[in-house]
Amino acid sequence: QMQLVESGGGLVQPGGSLRLSCAPSGSIFNLITMSWYRQAPGKQREMVATITSGGSTTYAGSVKGRFTISRVSATNTMYLQMNGLKPEDTAVYYCNARAVLRLGEYEDDYWGQGTQVSVSS
């Protein structure tokens, strides 16, 4: 079973920056995509950014130009650099990986435990 360990959340003032990281552990046959999702109180979980195994990226419109997703291929560690943070970015941020763990198995989604990001003055 793969585990995703997140770190980097915290409290920051509007306009500030944070960097989240997500490190997968366990054996992986094929890591298809890695993504960041977030969930604010009373709202549904939403996709923030996705990066494919080939390095292609997709962003939610609300974060485009402010957030950057990246991944280190050697370790599969994923990062989310968040600049120009706004109060509406306040949420629990979750790491997601879509992967096949063993040859012959189906792909599945795996989730981290979540890390709180709070943007407030």
Write the layout of secondary structure elements.
Elements: E1 3-7, E2 10-12, E3 18-25, E4 30-39, E5 46-52, E6 57-59, E7 67-72, E8 77-82, E9 91-100, E10 108-111, E11 115-119
Parallel strand pairs: 2-11
Antiparallel strand pairs: 1-3, 3-8, 4-5, 4-9, 5-6, 7-8, 9-10, 9-11
* Portion in strands: over 45%
Structural class: mainly beta
Provide the residue-averaged pLDDT.
96
Low-confidence region ranges: none
- What is the global morphology? elongated
Major beta sheet summary: 7 strands, mixed
First-last Cα distance: 40 Å
In which range does the helix fraction lie? under 10%
Radius of gyration, taken over Cα atoms and rounded to an integer in Å: 14 Å
| Topology, number of strands | 11
- Provide a count of the helices: 0
SSE pattern: EEEEEEEEEEE
Core attributes:
four-stranded antiparallel β-sheet, 11 strands, elongated
Provide a brief overview of the structure.
The chain has strands at 3-7, 10-12, 18-25, 30-39, 46-52, 57-59, 67-72, 77-82, 91-100, 108-111, 115-119.
Care to describe what's here?
The structure is a single chain. The protein is mostly beta strands and 121 residues long. The chain has no helices and 11 strands. The protein has strands at 3-7, 10-12, 18-25, 30-39, 46-52, 57-59, 67-72, 77-82, 91-100, 108-111, 115-119. The strands form 2 sheets. Strands 2, 4, 5, 6, 9, 10 and 11 form a 7-stranded mixed beta sheet that branches. A 4-stranded antiparallel beta sheet has the order 1-3-8-7, with no helix packed on it. The mean pLDDT is 96.
